[in-house]
Please model this.
Amino acid sequence: MGTIVCQDCQKVIEHFENEKVSTLYGTCPSCPSQDEE
Model:
């Protein structure tokens, strides 16, 4: 099972079924997108 984690607040967004155990980083809807640094 894999996990999607918000790269801003570190909250777990979603779990997904996968052959390998992995962690992906995304941005949850409650965090503003950080396209501009």
